[in-house]
Amino acid sequence: LVCSKGKLTHKDSLLSCCKFHWRGKIIFITPVVTMPILALGFCNDRAEYKCIYLIVNMAVFWISECIPLYVTSLLPLVFLPLFGILSTERCCSLFFTNTLVMFIAGLFLAVAIEYSNLHKRIALGTILLAGCSPRRLLLGLMVVTVFLSMWISNSATTALMCPIIKAILSEMEAEKLFSVYMTQDEEPVGEGEPPHPSKMSMAFYFGVAYTASIGGISTLIGTGTNLTFKGIYETRFPKSKEKITFPGWMVYAIPIGVIVNLLMLYISLQITHMALFRPNSKIGQEVKTAIANNHLVHGTIKQNFAELGRMTCHEIQIIIIFSIMIVLLFTSHPGFMPGWSDALNLQGVEGSAVMLLFVVILFALPTQYTFFKYCCGSAPFTGRTMDACISWNFIHNNMPWGLCFLIGGGFALAEGSKVSGMAKMLGESLSFVSTIPRDVVIGVTLLISIFCTTFSSNVAVCNILTPVFCEMVISSKNQSQNYYNSQLQALAVKIHPLLLTLPACLVMSFSFFLPVSTPPNAIISGYANIKTKYMAMAGILPTVFGVLLLWINAVTWGILIYPGTKEFPAWAK
C-alpha cells in the first residue's frame, strides 16, 4: 500500500478502505440507492412498494452478509410496524409459531443425540457394515449421512462426518493406498497454507455434504426450509384439504427425492472423481490398489468403534425416546386412517407439543440408574449427582439459536408481503405462465428456485420466493388496496398450490455449486480447503439430477401421495 517514496497514495488508501470496510459501505449505500422504491410507496400510499423496499435491502444484506444473517432477520420487527404493514404484536407472534417451536424442539433432540455420542456409533457402525474399499466406503458414508441428516440439521451432520473422513483419509495416506492431497504442480499452495485434497479425497467430502442436504428434505425437521415452507403455506392457505403432515412429507420426499437421488449422486461421483469406466487411468489404478488393501482401513475404523465400548444406558434411552416420538408423530394425523389425536379428541395437539414433551422427559431422565442401589442400602451414600439425558449448558453452547431468528424473520416477511399485497403483485406479474402447460410451469419454478439459492441462504430464499409462488395461483382483480378486502378473484395459474410450491421448496436444498449455497457446502469448503472451482465442477451433475428428479417426483409420485393436487381445488377459488 506504500508508493516508491514510502507514502500512502490516495488510490491505495481508497482500495484499502474498500477492501476492509466494504460491509459498512453496503449497509449505508443499499438503503440510499433503493430509496426511490420507498418514496414511491409513501407518495402513492402503496404498502406493497414499502414491503419491496424492505425485502430488497434484506436480500442484499443476506447475500453479502454485511451484517450477520440472523440480525438481518430481525429487521421485519422494526420496519413492518414502522411502515404500517403489521403491528408489533403480530410481528412478534410470528417469531414463536407452532412451526418454529417444532423446529426448536427438533434442534433440542438433535443436540441430545450428539450429547449421548450415539451419532458417532451409528456412523462408524454403518461404515463397518458397508465395507472399507473406496467405492463401498463412499456409499457407506453417504448412507449414514442421509440417515443422520433426517433428524439432525444438515450442518451438524456434515460437521460430525468431516473428522471421520479426515481420519479415514489419514489412514489411506499412511498406508499409501492413494494420493490424498494434490501435488504442488497440480495445485500450488503458499507457505503455511494447508494442501488441497486430491480428486478422490474430494469425492468423500462432496458425498457427505451433498447427501446431508439431500437427507434434510426427508422429514419436516430435517432442514429449516421444510418448516419454513410449512409455516408459510398453512398461513396462506388455511383451508387447504391437503395437510402437510410428518408421515405425508416423508412418503412424498423419500422414494424419488432421496433414495433415487442418492443413487444418482453416488454414480455421478464415481464417474467424475473415482474413474468409473476408466480402470486404466491414474485414479482408476489407485482405486484398484486401495480395494486390494481395504483391510488396513477396516482396522482403523474397527478400532475407533471398539473405543466407544458397549452401548450405554444413556444411548439406549435416547433410542427409545426418539423411536416413541417418531411413532407418535406418524400416527397423530396419518391421513390414510384416523390417528390417536382423532381417537382421543385432541385434534388441536400439533407436532410441536409432542416433540416438546419428549424434550422435557429427556431433562427428567438420568443417564444411568446406579442410584437405585442406594435406595435399599446403608450409609455412607455417594454425594455425586446424576446427569440428565440432556444438559442445558450443552444445548446453550451447541444450539444454533440464530436459525430460529432466521426462520421467524422469514415468517414475518412472508406475512408482510401477503398483507401489503406485494406477493400478489409479483404473482400477477408472473401470470403469463397461465398459458404454459402445468408440468412446464412446475419446471420453471424449480429453475427459479435453484438459481436464486445458488447465491444465498436457502432458508432466506424460501422466505422470499414461497409467498410469490403462492400468489401465482390467485390473481386479484379488485382495485382495493387492502389485501383482506379483496372480493373478486380470478385464476392466474390453474395449478394446485401444493403441487406448485412444494417441489420448489425441496429443490432449494439441492444447489451444490458454491460454498454459500448451503451450510454443508460452506463447512467442507473451509474444513478441507476445497477451492470453489472444484466444488462448482463437482456440483453440476448432482444439481441437474436433483432438479430433474424433483420435477419427475412432482408430476408422478407426488400426485399419487396427494391425489387432490390433480386439479385446481375449489377452496383456492
UniProtKB/TrEMBL annotation:
At the top level of its lineage, which domain of life is listed? Eukaryota
Q: Which UniProt keywords apply?
A: Membrane, Transmembrane, Transmembrane helix
Q: What are the transmembrane regions?
A: 20-42, 54-83, 95-115, 136-153, 203-229, 249-269, 316-336, 348-365, 440-470, 491-514, 534-562
Q: Chief localization class?
A: membrane
Pfam families, per database record: Na_sulph_symp
Q: How does it sit in the membrane?
A: Multi-pass membrane protein
Which InterPro entries does the entry link to? SLC13A/DASS
**GO molecular function terms attached to this record:** citrate transmembrane transporter activity; succinate transmembrane transporter activity
GO CC terms for this protein?
plasma membrane
Q: Give its localization.
A: Membrane
Family recorded in the similarity comment: Belongs to the SLC13A/DASS transporter (TC 2.A.47) family. NADC subfamily.
- Please report the name of this protein according to its UniProt entry: Protein I'm not dead yet 2
Q: Which organism is it from?
A: Drosophila rubida
